[in-house]
Queue: 3 jobs
Job 1
Amino acid sequence: MDLAELSERLVPFCREHLGDPAATVSNVETMPGHAGFSFGFTATANGESRSYVLRVPPPNVRRVGTADVIRQARVVHALRDTDVPVVDVIWSGEDERWFDSPYFIVNKLEGDVLRSDWGWDMPAEEMRPVAFQAMRALASLHLLDWREYVPDDGPPLELEPDVTRWDRFYERSGDMDLVALAPDVREKLLERLPEEPRIGIFHGDFQWSNVFYSFDGTLQAVIDWELWGVGATLNDLGWVITFADAEAWKHGLRHALPSPDDLIAEYVDTYGSDPGDIAWYRALAAYKFGIISGFNLYLHRSGKRPDESWEDTALSVPFLMRRALEVLDGG
């Protein structure tokens, strides 16, 4: 729906849920990063104005997986009294009379994600404590007993399918030369599957654009829980470290994040014990993103999903694959 229609729908919703028949809605806007399915707005009711963010699934898709917004709201709500900072879920529901779909609404935060001009321009001495907050939040998430917080969301995902499920995307790379090392990485990952991975709640896309800070550098919330699940928690650590590892990228990194070793040390210190074979999960993350980049390059070049940025990102695919082999070998 367009913003004018959404504005009209939000007025009766807010009047009912805020208990003010004269409530008004303003500043309705499309929020970044969600392909038009996350909207900000301000509601004024009972003499007070507050800003919110509405999340709805994409139209005309099955409401499962990343399109299951109620599932996202459920985990965020479950984490509200833990050491994992999350937004407050103000309303959620499956009553489609409001927006023609399930929905959830959270309070709108003031600040920005770390992967932004605000964050990336931060000097190293300021960046260090800011980034460490994210690592502590991640370890705190992984320490939670999933059976207590999300008991209906098991059983845990297995590791071998998390390697082999990328085969079909590898075969559709936009440039097979870029993924030439992928079969070697795949083989080594399967040879070295962790035997007893630590199981818990994982975020699924824990990276620097999904940690939201106030402008004084305080972590306010881990956001965007579309890919959360129950399984090997170190998937999250491997993923975020890959995006902090200059050796995994052709052009290095433009930000002043702490080194992978320092970030890992902060995570382990909060976790309180040896979390397992971190190198394996770092290699898996590099392997995944390398294949994802090659596949998105194919979608771009074929005209199915044009996005020129993948031409540049895909240049790092050989570096990602080489880095995966290096960390598996102890580099």
Job 2
Amino acid sequence: MRVGLVGTGRIGESHAAAIARRPEVDELVLADVDAGRAREVAGRVGAHAAGSIEALLHPAAVDALVVTAATSAHAELILAGVRAGTPVFCEKPVAPTVAETVEVLREVDKREALVHIGFMRRFDAGYARARRALADGELGTLHRVHAVTCDAAPPPAGYVPTSGGIFRDCHVHDFDILRWVTGAEVVEVHAYGANRGAPYFAEAGDVDTTAAVLRLSDGTLATVQGSRYNGGGYDVRMELAGTAGTIAVGLDERAPVRSAEPGVSFPSQSPWQEFWSRFRPAYEAEIAAFLGAVRDGGPSPCTVADALEAVLVADAADRSRREGRPVLVEEVRP
């Protein structure tokens, strides 16, 4: 299989290294707006560098296309791949706006194309185990869910104005995995935000700390909390509580929490500090699933439609924060 990858920044290089190790990949070809960087990364991971991005977008140029470029280029690259008849994997988000996401969705559906959007938590062993526990009745009737996403350190000031805001940039993962694990849709969101750190978040119209209550279609209540400043480390967890039991995702030996109880040493190892080390097995499983779908002609493990639903929840949360009221997801649906 010949795979093309566009975008050789930090996450692009990590994906490239994972793809290069896949046994079904005979050749990996990288491209970037910075051709020199593409060559450097290709040398490090054992791939080849294309002369241009366009060289990977022609029909039959590659068997699969992986998009890890800047968010502003996602929609254009997905559509180019789809129109060339090439299966596409793209890191989230599909596009900077809901309108562009809908445009991509219509084209993908019209062509019945294979497009996989990168929400890697669906491939994390802990989230998969929680989903099975709920589906198999181990938890009884689900009553509440709590999700946390906290960065160990904030992103650079220059990143924030183009990030889409904390709900789109960070919590969109919580919203997607909440739908995937529970099988329910988010109906309403009441979100709050605060700025407790550097002023550049507020200057960009964003916040660095969040709390939200979500009402699901089956009546379950969920809470989501987040921060750009978590001194304990990179903290991503989920707790599901039902009438027959409670299960927690991310509560391992590297969880960035400490017990206040006497004699308790758990967790005993150094805490996670960033997303790739925490979710590396999930990222690798995600790429393996995409390449398997390409090989076998299977369905997308995470569709553009799935991505749209998560973004709509994020937009509802952001509107709720700005307007100081609960917002129905249907209010932001085009």
Job 3
Amino acid sequence: MYEKYYGLKERPFQLTPSLNLFYASKLHKRALAYLQYGLSQGEGFIVITGDVGTGKTTIANQLLSQLNQDEIIAKQIVTSKLEPDDLIRMIASCFNLVVTEHTKASYLDAIYSYLKRLHSQHRRALLLVDEAQNLPLASIEELRMLSNFQLNGKPLLQSFLLGQNELNAIIQADNMEQFRQRIIASSNLSAFQIEDTKAYIQYRLLQAGGNAGILQDACFALIQQHSRGIPRKINTVMDRILLFGYLEECPVITAEHVKTVLEELSQEIANQQPSAPVMQVQQPQTASTQSMLSELSAVLDSALEQKIRMAKELDVLLKRQQQLLNSRDNKES
């Protein structure tokens, strides 16, 4: 909608990752270099972690775009809480493998046969596991077991794990020592500092064919504060800022414009914090309430004592009646 107004060839801040708009910050360059290094080694695990929206999937897509398809067959899977057997089935499916029997042994045999066939063609397989923090420990251990598939001393399958920061804690578990020994490199993506946020926005505007100067310098601090330097949040707010500028016919975006957009965003449901449950506060008892409760308690106690007395008297009467009946029976006999 706003592309023509600002002279853009495409939307520079769409949420879907775009290879053409990839901005390599210092941390992103390091993470990508680790992935490329892992590829050159042809063995072991590479682990890339980071908060939601910091660019892990974007880096994975960038790596996949650089691969020589004649040498490396790469597949990317996004995991949920898959148990080991389900994970094996998903891996077989992503490589388009067909089995006659739906057993774990059959799936493993199909994977191994496929990997040996690639090896005979001087090719190898690469598996990128996205959202790896969702995997149970047993499933991560299953990935380690798959890395044991070898031929002539060369691993047949290499895996890269991408996940949120919770993945670090999972890998540090006591029973993950063998897996940790297979990790040849790891990197953690953190949020941008304000300099990177500014460079990121200007780079994307230029790559989309626009003018990096459409935002005044005072805008970047406000965007940084709202987004906390997370690329996905930067994309969201920048998309809205450009839409606002188009609707209000603002060729240059000022800090006041950004404040207006941020205020609008704060009122939307996606940016509202969940309300805390309302706690019922017990009101302190007043003197009159305490007096009323005391009187009620006394009445109840009195009624209870009266019932106990009546029960005892009834019991005595029943005993006397039983004695009279017994005496009459004796006389008649």
